[in-house]
From TrEMBL:
Localization annotation: Cytoplasm; Cytoplasmic vesicle, COPI-coated vesicle membrane; Golgi apparatus membrane
Protein name, UniProt field: Coatomer subunit delta
Skewed-composition ranges (Basic and acidic residues): 123-141
An annotated GO cellular component: Golgi membrane
Subunit structure: Oligomeric complex that consists of at least the alpha, beta, beta', gamma, delta, epsilon and zeta subunits.
Principal place of residence: cytoplasm
Amino acid sequence: MVVLSASIVTKGGRPIRYVYQPLEDLWLVILTNRQSNILQDIDTLQLLSRIVSDFCRGTVTEAEVLGRSFEVLSSFDEVVCMGYREKIDLNGIRSVMEMESHEEKIQEIIAKNKEQEAKEELKRRAKQLDTQRREALKRGQSDVYSTGMGSGGGYDRPYQPSQPVAPVVREDPYSSRTTVAAKPFKTKGMQLGSKSKSQGVLGDEDAAAGPWPPVSVIQNSESAAPPTSAAPASAAKAVDLNPFAPETQENVHLVLREKLSAELARDGGLAPNSTGINISGSLELKVAADSETKIWVNLNHGVSKGTIPASDIQFKTHPNVDKKAWADSRVIKLKDAERGFPTKQGLAVLKWRLTSKDETLIPISINCWPTSNDDGGCDVNIEYEAENENVQLHNLVISIPLPDGSYPKVAQCDGTYEIQTEETAVLQWKIEGDDEGVAPSGGSMEFHCPDSDPDSFFPVSVDFISPSILSQVSVDQVATVAGDEPIEFSSDALLSTEEYAVV
C-alpha cells in the first residue's frame, strides 16, 4: 500500500501535514502537524483503511461508504479521540461495534424455548401414560389410565433399568417468575476456559437414554414434590432474566449485569494456575417515552469490604457516549446534545471488566473431601460456606461429577438433590432458600459412591444468582440534558456465575 504525505503552511502561518493513501476510487486523508510521529501517523492511516475495507464489503465506493457512514465514523472515533491516537486494534474495534440488543436475544430464546417445551411436554405425557399402563397391568388393575403416582422412591432403592422411575424434581422458588426453565448442569460445560455453546433450555430428546436411570430427588420431608413438566436448574443458566427486577418500571429503566468466573483450589482459595477472579459487567439503558430520550445518567460506586475499588475496574463506554463527561464526573450522556437515546429497546451504554487475585471477593467456598474406603469406593463429604457478606446467594446449585456406572448412596443432605444423566452423570445438590429465597450461609452433604477414586469427583461446579453485584456500581441520578431536571427512574441488578468451579 502506497502512503503519501505533503506539508503546507496556511495563511496564518500554521504548518499542516497531509498523510494520505488511495483507497480504490477514493482517498483516505489524515491531517497532522509537522511535529507528529510520521510512523504512528502511517500506522493510524493503515488502521483506518482496514476499518473502511472491513465495513464496505467488496468494492469501496462513495455510495458504500455513505451507506455505512455511522459505523465508519463511530469506528474512527474509537481510533482517534480529541486528536490523539487510542491504543486499540482492529479486533478491539470489532468488539466495540458488536453492540447487540439484549431484549431481542431474550425474546428469541423465549420463543424457541416455548416451542421446544410444548414438544417435550407431549413426549413426557406419552411416556408417562405408557409407564402407567405397564404398571397397572402388572398390579392387575383395570384403571389403565390412573394418574396417581407414588413419591418416587428413595436412594436405597436398587437399580432397576427395566422399570425406570420417572424423575421427580422440586420446583425452583424463582421458576414461576420466568417463562423459561433452565437446562440441567453438565460438568463438561462447566470446565473453565472452554467456550459456552448455545443449548436448548430442556434436554435433548435422547438425553435420558444413557446407562443411568432417572433418579428422584431425595428430600428431607416425608413426601416428594409433585412431578413437573421440566426439570428447572438455576435461573442463572437460563436466559438473563432477573427475578429481582421491580414489577413496575419507570420510563427510564437501567439494567446492571455482572458475570463471575473463577477457578478455586480444593484446599481453599484460588487455584494455583488460575488467572484470578474474572468479572465482566454491563449497564443497559431502556427509555420508554420519546419525551425522555435527551438525558444524562450519573453513576455511583460504593466501597466496602469484599467489593472492587473503582480504580481497579476497566470501564468502556459506547462510541456515542461523551468520554470526557464520563472520565470527569462518571456521567453517561451522548456526545451530540441534540440527539436522544433510542426508545423501546435496550442499549448497552457501559461495559466493565476486572481480573483480580483478591480472595475477599470470593462469594462462596467449597470444601469437597473424597476418601477412599476398603470396598474400592469413596466416602464423599462436601460442604459450602458463604464468604462475602455483600452477596446474597439465591438458586444455589452445586454439581458434583460421578464416575461412569457408579450409583451414589446419599447419607445426609442439607436441601435436596437429584442425578442428571446427560452425557455424563452429575449429582446436583440444590440448597433451598429462606422465605426471601436466600440460601443459608453454610451446609453439608455426605454420600458413598462405589467403584470410584477421589479425582473422579472434580471439577465441582457452582451456580447461583444474587441481586448484589460485586463492583457495587449503581445509578445515582437521571436528569434532562436541558435544565438538569431530575427524572424518575428504576433499576435492577443481577450477579450470576459463568464458570465457577473447584478444580
